[in-house]
Predict the 3D structure of the following.
Amino acid sequence: MIPLKTDLERYVLPERCDCGSPLGCQKCRVLIVLDASAKDKPRTVVSGDLVSEDREISPISPSIPILKLAVGQSVKLEAYARLGRGKEHAKWQPATVSALTEGKGEGVYILKVESNGTLPAKEIVTRSIEKLEEKLKELQKEIEAKAE
């Protein structure tokens, strides 16, 4: 679970993609390749060794350890990174901490959001508000339909 910098404008959720492929396409996934070996001495393979087909989609830090190779060992792999929702799995949660506290004035609240680096905190809040607005509109339509 290596957090990747994410661009929500360039990629869509797999279930919203029109490709219909279980492997996805350029609109709903990114290919990431790892090809590393330890020749003369043991080596720790790190997130910086991952090569993404999209330069904008990369690990948030190049120094996250992935595995250790003994002398003479190597590893090759291809992986697909795709968007997902935090309610499906924790790996897709962009915020590590969020807290709402009371401010100094009456009716004043302070929202603190700490990002894991995949998205800026401001974008996490903005996207969350947009998603909440969508859900409220859906709820309003359902209420209106049942009232008829």
